[in-house]
Amino acid sequence: MKLMLAKYRPYYFSGALLALVIIMPLLLGHSPSPTLKAEKHQNSQGFMPPSVPTSASYANEVIDLRRADRRERMDRELMAFSYMHSSSMLMIKRANRYFPIIEPILKAAQVPDDLKYLMVIESSMNPFAVSPAGAAGFWQFMKGTGKDYGLEVNNNVDERYHIEKSTKAACKYLKDAYAKYGDWLTAAASYNAGQGRISNELKKQDVEHAADLWLVQETSRYMFRLLAAKQFLKNPKEFGFYLNREDLYPPVEYKKVVINKPVADLVAFAKEQDISYAELKEANPWLKARSLENKSGKSYTILIPSQESLYYNPSKTPVHYQGWLAN
Predict the structure, then answer these.
(1) The whole model's pTM is what?
(2) How much is the average pLDDT of 203-226?
(3) 80 and 22 co-located in one domain
(4) What is the count of structural domains for the chain?
(5) CB-based burial, 259-289: b 16+ in 10 Å, e otherwise
């Protein structure tokens, strides 16, 4: 079975970016500015790695990290979160906006809340994320897999970019995988490599858990990046990230407009709703064209952001999780 879900991998460049951060100031005759350094992970000798725990929990399963191979794989991903500064910072900011949408969907689907971290590593919570292979949206579905799990994907509408519908589709996929493997981390590995590949390797290597498999580097890293993402977003201060309320992105308030007929001009539609076309697309990235053909008369819900959301006051941003704040 071929790889079902291709990936968006911003963290592959962490080593190169870290090298630039360290080397370029030296070439210019300057040492790195102290204001850019994470206090916890730096001493007078240079950068310090984050601490690797002896175990990590994921979806009520405890993963033993004392074994050398697991410890070092976890160490690598923790360092990626620590020193890929801009991407890691954006994850915290975006989580404040998107976790309140994702968490109730996971709960309603009766899947563990920890599955939201899979979305984090898939797309860095970028609603417009697309991989070179064509995987798209928060959950990075390929076209075929998205359609298999009920998403409409065509030149006019692409529900892989619909946060609620794609999350429900991801829940279905992961529940199917869990029914097959019996643990959520192996189910997560199959989300990356495909169920056929994981099933074959479990059989050929005679092990029961994906964390014990010898796999291609991408899938091998994937599981431990998932564990690291949870640790990072549970307590970013341990990684040297200190944010204030004003730094977080607030949830957006919307008016919902149900459309069950064609919309010939979405630019004109946006003006009727007192927003720009750009604001309409930002709120509804699943709308792929300047019109909504809707030949079948299907009902679509289009989100219209409120004026308060378009011009929000950062000092009044609601905080979804207090652990993201410095104080």
Answers:
(1) 0.84
(2) 93
(3) yes
(4) 2
(5) eeeebeebeebbeeeebebebbbbbbbbbee
